[in-house]
Amino acid sequence: MFRKNMGIDLGTSSVLIYVRGKGIVLREPAVVAIDKKTMKILKVGFEAQEMLGRTPKNIAAVHPMRDGIISDYDSTEQMLRYFIRKANGNSIFPPNAVVCVPSRINEVEERAVRQAVTNAGAKNIELIEEPMAAALGADVYENWTDVSGILMADPRIVDDPEPIRRVTYSELRELSYIGAQVLHEGTIFPVREKNIPLNIRNTNAPDHPGTMILESIGDEQEEGGFITGIAGKKGFSIITIAKTGMSSEPGSLLKILNVLAKHEVNVEYLPSGIDNVSLVVSSDKVSRSLYEMLGELQKEVQPNKITVTEHIAIVAAVGRKMAYRPGVSGKIFAKLGENGVNIRMITQGPEELNIIVGVEEKDFEQAIRVLYHSFVKENVVS
Known about the structure:
By secondary structure, the chain is α+β, with helices and mostly antiparallel strands. It has 3 domains: 5-135, ATPase, nucleotide binding domain (Nucleotidyltransferase, domain 5, 2-Layer Sandwich); 141-224, Acetylglutamate kinase-like (Carbamate kinase, 3-Layer(aba) Sandwich), CATH 3.40.1160; 230-377, VC0802-like (2-Layer Sandwich), CATH 3.30.2130. The protein has 11 helices and 20 strands. The protein has helices at residues 46-49, 73-88, 107-119, 130-135, 169-177, 185-193, 252-262, 283-287, 290-301, 328-338, 364-377; strands spanning 5-10, 14-19, 23-29, 32-35, 41-44, 59-62, 65-66, 69-70, 96-101, 123-129, 141-145, 166-168, 198-202, 211-214, 229-242, 267-269, 276-282, 305-318, 343-348, 354-360. The protein has a 6-stranded antiparallel sheet with strand order 16-17-15-18-20-19. A 5-stranded mixed sheet has the order 3-2-1-9-10. Strands 11-13-14-12 form a 4-stranded mixed sheet. Strand 19 (343-348) and strand 20 form a beta hairpin. Helix 2 (73-88) packs across helix 3 (107-119) and helix 7 runs antiparallel to helix 9. The longest helix has 16 residues, at 73-88. 37% of the residues are buried. The mean pLDDT is 84.
């Protein structure tokens, strides 16, 4: 009865400690400052973070955990000892602890966490996967990171992109698939199954609202433009198969897909016409057996022509409100064309959450910037 009951969340880049009856008593960055000569820990948490990027040569400020998983055991143990003692206050009794860990943690990593928390001074330790912990009666699951939510575009391409205030789980899936850096699926989907909003917050800017991820967004919650985010990635090829009357020939598409499946090549996108079909595939996957695969396609389908276009990048504009805005595709074509970006392929998902274009890799960054500045900054679609 004299022990405090603590909940410890080993987050992506921070540690949060909850004490029963008091609420959250500690939320600090998971950073330690180490003297490289003596390997002694000098500072922990906020004090260590202030040393990042400006430490003397003999001092290193590091994150001993990666995505909530221990990468430097000794430093993690000492960091947790500091945090637990700070949260335990003047009590002489070691606390009981329930520790939230990432859902993808393996048995070896789990044992390391349990041992580190034990050595740090806690007793009666239980581990629970953090998304499921959040799902136990929670109204909102807050995930504290080192960024203020999810950005509308890659900051390495677009200067100072706007944060996404609200996004649906479906939109997030689209952005993640096309290359946006978002949360690990193991964090997202257990919470989604419970229909619980997920709030991405910044430990270093706790007053920033971050990004709220919801199953659906009502009209009263809508704000901003019709595009939620813009993402993309390089490294694709387009295999175009042309044959007169292909659309009326039963089984032709199945023959094509069977050839690719034989060579373990996934089709990312499949735009098609009356007499042709284009297969957007990973260049790395197809390069190992391209000529063999083309020969089999020629034999199975007997097309008029097969062409392969390499060095393709995929760019997607994602937004739940695009389905209700006429002329979006035309305006995307126009803006990219005005800025010298040649579109090699276009497709759209059945739910109309996205518009996807294929461009030459040399135009990739330009396409991202054009779409962002045209449809986010200028908000040209009314």
